[in-house]
């Protein structure tokens, strides 16, 4: 009789110990009592009713999902491949267990289809230049769907956009043409400004002949700065006019004689 009582107490103690559960800081336990949700426990050490209660453990840390490259057609009929990375975490472990069969697969599939649909609504230039807007749009749509599952989408980032080789060559030619056009416009604008400045300078020199002599002296200084043996002697225009007039007067006198 004593042996049976001892065995009963030992079994009771072992059964009670089996009800002790331990969850780490990033874990939660969803408790089912006779098949019905009894609540969420953890982290730390806690006790559940053996046999009657069952626990499903959930990791609430942020999870990273790599979305494989997807082939899609943009709004301007260009076939491209895009891939992305998704960050999510569980806010309500009970919903993640009860509302969807496999929340990890469900989140991945909804992110996959949403990325393809959102990219297909934009033209190629927007996909390449406005990735942030596409990321935010995908995040909002996926987060709205997964909210009922107790899952929050923290971030969506497009990693790479693969463009066909023929389209890459066309885009390179377009970019080169745009740069050449910009260079020609800048050059023409500079020549226009230079012509305006030259016209203003000519007016100033015409009104003040001494300015022409100063410009000649400056030219001599610039030439002398170079390492060369060339020597230039510049005679003021007034001297040239005076010499010409003097020469003409001498010729007239000789002809008069």
Automatic annotation (TrEMBL):
Family annotation (SUPFAM superfamilies): Band 7/SPFH domain
Band domain residues:
18-175
State the InterPro entries in the record. Band-7_stomatin-like, Band_7, Band_7/SPFH_dom_sf, Stomatin_HflK_fam
| UniProt-listed Pfam families | Band_7 (PF01145)
Cellular component terms per the entry's GO annotation: plasma membrane; side of membrane
The family line of this record is: Belongs to the band 7/mec-2 family.
Q: What is this protein called?
A: Slipin family protein
Q: Which organism is it from?
A: Cyanomargarita calcarea GSE-NOS-MK-12-04C
